[in-house]
Specification:
The protein is mainly α. The protein contains nine helices and no strands. It is an enzyme of class 2 (transferase).
Length: 184
């Protein structure tokens, strides 16, 4: 996904993207915004701006394949053979058993999850001014946790029926937020 996103953003041949193994969404984002003027902006605001833009860019890049990509389609998009793609992603070392690769869903999850972490930080930092009530803060943080669980279930597809049910039980019993953690 990062390889295709870098190509579509026109940064695949930059040294930061070309000479790294493996290329990640974070590296793509950092390189894409490497010349951005951040003067006068808080670190949180910069992260929110960047992650929001990358979520949009990934949706535009992968949106034409909502059902996922085949190996052939990914290789074609990159202008390489499927064997070259396999070598680039170290498939011999990390075998992948899939016919279709959900690049849109995975990119949306990665960027939206990082955005939730930044928003969590923002909420915690804003509570230092004591203008927010504990209930407001708890609800806002809980909402982010619930959104994370939804994303893990729907976009990253790393949850399961039992964990989804456990989260619903916790929320129904008064938990403000419930999500899977760790390895699922």
């Amino acid at each position: 996904g990062a390889l295709i996103l870098a190509k579509c953003l026109g940064i695949a041949d930059r040294p930061a993207c070309k000479n790294v193994d493996p290329l990640t969404f974070k590296i793509v984002m950092d390189e894409y915004f490497s010349g951005q003027d951040t003067a006068g902006k808080s670190e949180v605001d910069v992260w929110i701006e960047r992650l929001t833009a990358m979520f949009k860019a990934s949706s535009e890049t992968f949106g034409s394949h909502p059902g996922g990509y085949t190996r052939d389609e990914m290789a074609q998009e990159l202008g390489i053979t499927t064997q070259q793609l396999s070598n680039k992603v170290h498939e011999a070392q990390f075998p992948v058993r899939a016919e279709r690769f959900q690049l849109l869903k995975r990119a949306q999850h990665a960027f939206s999850e990082a955005l939730r972490v930044v928003r969590f930080r923002q909420i915690c930092e804003q509570t230092n001014d004591r203008s927010s009530t504990c209930g407001d803060v708890g609800k806002a943080l809980g909402d982010l946790m619930n959104q994370s669980q939804d994303s893990c279930r729907d976009l990253f597809e790393c949850s399961c029926k039992e964990l989804d049910e456990l989260c619903e039980i916790a929320r129904g019993a008064g938990s403000l937020g419930s999500r899977l953690t760790g390895a699922g």
